[in-house]
Amino acid sequence: MTSATLTLPADWRDFLALTKPRVMSLVVFTGLCGMLAAPVTIDPVLGFTAILCIALGAGAAGALNQWYESDIDLVMKRTAGRPLPAGRMERQSALHFGVGLAAFSVILMGLALNLVAAAILTASILFYVFIYTIWLKRRTPQNIVIGGAAGAFPPLIGWAAATGDVATLPILLFALIFLWTPPHFWALALFMKTDYAAAGVPMLPVVAGERTTRVQIGLYTLPMAAAAIAPWPLGLAGELYGIVAVVTTAVFGAMALQVALRTTSAGDTMRPEKRLFAYSILYLFILFGALVVDHWI
Ligand code: HEM
Ligand SMILES: CC(C)=CCC/C(C)=C/CC/C(C)=C/COP(=O)(O)OP(=O)(O)O
After folding, report:
1. Which GO molecular function annotation, any one, does this entry have (predicted)?
2. Which of 132, 133, 177 to mutate to test the pocket of ligand 2 (most atoms within 8 A of CB)?
3. 198/137 Cα distance (integer angstroms)
4. Alpha-helical regions (H) of 200-270
């Protein structure tokens, strides 16, 4: 995209769109809950600063992702309206915005909170940009399995911001999001398959077919369920969390099973896939919320 083809100067809404605010809301929520579930009470101003750093760091990662992949975003219907493919912003501006925001978030985290939190925040930004976006996304259908680790770090960052350390519970929360990501994303990929195929992105339904993707969704749900419920029997969370985890995970399992057992979807509504995708988001909100409520009562 050259400046000659740009139609409009970017305004603040375009910079906000670069940060993928809707996806980031859940990323930030899991970070907040990781912080609030820690065994020490963090000073509110420091706590707010830590969450701000996670939000800015995640936003920076989103901007750098969009800077790198404006070519494929242009091809996919879902993403063609983003500031870069739509020609409302120069790629350079997105790059500068992303790098500046990333540096600011990490430095502020290091200065105001601690180096452990700053290091994990750095790792998650680098992981999302270099490992997922630049290296794996265009090369292998395992892109989101490995790259999904980037989005699993926030509870560890929140916990580390409060305690200066990591522990078993935030590691389990990392595992939960890590194992949740394949069912979350592949459910969407099933009904967005044509977009990904058009863009030449080797997502699992495109490369291995729908049948394999459905089975993989079912398979990942099993260890995900174990990670979700584990804090209760391990004594890291109480009964309230345990009950919420068992019930919401059972619903997740039933929906995933429905998706796994479907043989075809050609020409139909893909309703079970869309329902699983939507529920996957609600599920993490409820689970992390329950963890904090359980911790504080
Ligand atoms: C590699 C891992 C992941 C991939 C490839 C992925 C992919 C996607 C895609 C393509 C969408 C649709 C977004 C849109 O309509 O613009 C989406 C939605 C969403 N994702 Fe993920 N996701 C991943 C991990 C995560 C993680 C870790 C979280 C948070 C913990 C998350 C939270 C969300 C939320 C909240 C939405 C709904 C956004 C909306 O309402 O528009 N995702 N995801
Ligand atoms: C610093 C920090 C906590 C970083 C978080 C990393 C992060 C944002 C993880 C979420 C993953 C995500 C938004 C995937 C979207 O996939 P995609 O980029 O393939 O989606 P797209 O097709 O919509 O661009």
Report:
1. protoheme IX farnesyltransferase activity
2. 132
3. 14
4. 204-207, 210-229, 239-261
Mean pLDDT value across residues 25-32: 97
Query: How do the domains of the chain map onto residue ranges?
Result: 11-162, 167-297
Give residue 230 CA to ligand 1 midpoint distance, Å: 24
61 lines ligand 2 (CB under 6 A): yes
> Residues 273, 78, 60, CA angle at the centre, nearest 5°?
105
With 0.90 as the threshold, say if the pTM is over it: yes
Expressed in angstroms and rounded, the spacing between residue 5 Cα and the centre of ligand 1 is: 30
Q: What is the ipTM of this complex?
A: 0.96
| Segment 179-231, tens digit of pLDDT | 999 999 999 999 999 999 999 999 999 999 999 999 999 999 999 999 999 99
* Cα 180 to chain centroid, rounded: 10
Q: How many CB atoms lie within 10 A of CB 214?
A: 26
Choosing among 1.10.357.10, 3.40.50.1950, 3.10.180.10, 1.10.357.140, the CATH entry for 11-162 is: 1.10.357.140
> CA-based diameter of the chain, in Å?
61
